[in-house]
Amino acid sequence: MDSLFKELIFWLLVAVTVGAALLVVHLRDMFRAALTLVVSFLGVAGIFALVNAEFLAVAQVLIYGGGISILVIFAVMITRDVEEGNRSTPTQPAALGVAVLLLAALIYVIVQQEWQLLPDHLPGPLAEVFVDTPAALGRLLLRDFVLAFEAVGVLLLAAVIGALALVRER
Known about the structure:
Elements: H1 2-26, H2 30-50, H3 54-77, H4 92-112, H5 125-131, H6 133-144, H7 146-167
Helix pairs in contact: 1-2, 2-3, 5-6, 6-7
């Protein structure tokens, strides 16, 4: 019974997430599209929580459900003519064609891949991550993979400086 309940919750979360994502694309009002984007982000966080990826679920809620969503909503609020939505352009059919081709390629790769389950006993630091995710992930980031962690920090700092340089008044 427990497995059936989890599967029902999973499919409910998938339906909410995909439905909200489709509404983001199809709504003409940008503010409502931004709000449905928040629902989509929270649906993904629910799926992460359901598969016992608590760290990813919390990160999804804090970073995307909180920070990115608020940033998008503020950007929509200071934009003029929000009610008009996107205007039609000649590049829309080409963009739709590229999106359909990418979706077809993704489906082909997923179907052709030979998926393998993880072994029962994982070697080395991978075993720690699946037992106590947040603490083990913190240890790995600050001990074994500290160089990659610092490189990502420098990259994010460069992105923030670049964004500030772009929006600076001249």
